[in-house]
Amino acid sequence: MKIRAAVLEEFGQPLVVQELDLGEPRSGEVLVRLVACGVCHTDLYTASGVDPSGYAPCVLGHEGAGIVERVAGDVASLAPGDHVVTLFAPECGECVHCRSGRTNRCVAIRDQQGLGYLPDGTTRLSRGGEPMRHFMGTSTFAEYTVMPEIALARVSPEAPLEGCAPFACGLATGIGAVLYTAGVQPGSTCAVFGCGLVGLGAVIGARLAEADRIIAVDLSERRLESARHHGATDTRIAGDDVVDWIREETGGFGADYTFEATGSVHVMRQAVEAAREAWGLATMVGVAGKGETLDILPRLLITGRRVTGASFGGVKGRTQVPQLVDRWLAGEIDVDSLLSHRLTLDDVNRGFELMEAQDGIRSVIVFE
Fold first, then answer.
1. CB of 190 within 8 A of CB of 199?
2. Got the DSSP string for 174-197?
3. Chain centroid to CA 145: how far?
4. Where does the pLDDT of residue 192 fall: very low under 50, low under 70, confident under 90, or very high at 90 and above?
5. Among 29, 37, 41, 173, the one annotated catalytic
6. How far is 349 from 6, CA to CA, in rounded Å?
7. Are the beta carbons of 203 and 231 closer than 8 angstroms?
8. Which residue among 62, 207, 223, 230 is the active-site one?
9. Residue 320 resides in a domain
10. 317-349 per-position pLDDT tens digit
11. Does residue 45 have a pLDDT over 90?
């Protein structure tokens, strides 16, 4: 079938919206009609050429939500008409990692996915008869996409798909980092560094976890205002003095849990230093630049602080994304306030511009 999609032709250049061919789903695959797709920093990161694992040409996009159109004969968990959220982090339920119960890092299709192919080592996208690679196993900057069954989460049909899209990456990552990776306990103190969509998700997660105090740190007063709306009890403009301020505010010890959501290694170090002596846990959620390293003084660890990372917030996509969407429907999460711009596919590069200007929280492409 013919589809329109936004293609990354060359690193550092605008995406080009054009017509491509999309093949039928094969064994274990599903055809999805996209209704909405968030414009995420990971897409910009790859388009810029900074991502060492990036490749071109390909169809970008991974924060998608849509409706199942067709399924291959052996697909058992999905049917035409189902509402789904796309998952760059699949959940097969059968690999060694899924069976462990200790991680969401499913390895069933990772190798081919990282190379831009579907599980059988081929692509469904093509142009002029030449294959074109997929992105993160999703390629949702397109009217339609073909994806593995294990990389789609079926969600309530009552949930507007525009609002479901951020649960495919940014929002779920932030919430999950708090609830699933860090396991924040009620009555604790949390500090969140960075109040973009992921950081605001962490603020929301801390509220859902019933943290007693939620400190939000950002360079933008406007984003700090949004953090207060979503549950932050304290806010602070980012700066070199923020670690000392957090310690002063916590009796000299630091926060029980800290979350870094900027991708800056300087801020990552602040998150470690602001974690409480003896049991503080610093969770790294942001993606650092190519070749950057995080320097940590050993005494910070010897005195009890711990450091961990969160891939997709530790969220098990097929199991837990639907649960998070249900919490939105129950009124526990204000998703509408996070959707700042609604764009068409032809405006996809405008979405990148808005992100670089820090204009709004999440731009969403809405398909006709």
1. no
2. HHHIIIIII-PPTT-EEEEE--SH
3. 19
4. very high
5. 41
6. 9
7. yes
8. 62
9. no
10. 999 999 999 999 999 999 999 999 999 999 999
11. no
Would you call 63 a catalytic residue per the annotation?
yes
Together in a domain, 140 and 182 = no
Q: Which CB contacts under 8 angstroms, 24+ apart, belong to 228-232?
A: 229/334, 229/337, 230/200, 230/203, 230/204, 230/334, 230/337, 231/203, 231/204, 231/206, 231/207, 232/192, 232/203
251-270: per-residue pLDDT in tens? 999 999 999 999 999 999 99
349 and 209 share a domain?
A: no
How far, in whole angstroms, is CA 321 from its chain's centroid?
11
Specify the residue for token string 């339920």. 93
Residue in 66, 58, 62 with CA at minimum distance from that of residue 43: 62
pLDDT tens-digit series, residues 278-303:
999 999 999 888 889 999 999 999 99
Number of helical H runs and strand E runs in the chain:
12, 18
DSSP string across 233-277:
SEEEE-STTHHHHHHHHTTTS-BSEEEE-S--HHHHHHHHHTBPT
Instruction: Based on the residue annotation, tell me whether 37 is a catalytic residue of this protein.
Output: no
Q: Which position has the token pair 């630049």? A: 289
Active site residue 91: no
Residues 69 and 84 grouped into a single domain:
yes
Confidence grade of residue 54 (pLDDT, cut at 50, 70, 90):
confident
Q: Is 190 a catalytic residue?
A: no
pLDDT over 90 percentage in the chain: 95
> How do strand 29-38 and strand 63-71 relate by DSSP bridges?
antiparallel
pTM (two decimals): 0.96
Question: Is residue 13 included in any domain, yes or no?
Answer: yes
Domain range for 40: 2-168+335-366
DSSP state of 142: B
Which three-class secondary structure state does DSSP give residue 1? coil
| Known catalytic membership, residue 164 | no
195 is catalytic: no
Annotated catalytic residue, options 69, 95, 233, 341: 95
Q: How far apart are the first and last CA of the chain?
A: 17
Q: Are 51 and 35 in contact (CB under 8 A)?
A: no
- By the 8 A CB rule, do 322 and 155 touch? yes
Is 327 part of a structural domain of the chain? no
Tens digits of residue pLDDT in 218-257: 999 999 999 999 999 999 999 999 999 999 999 999 999 9
Residues 163 and 180 in one domain: no
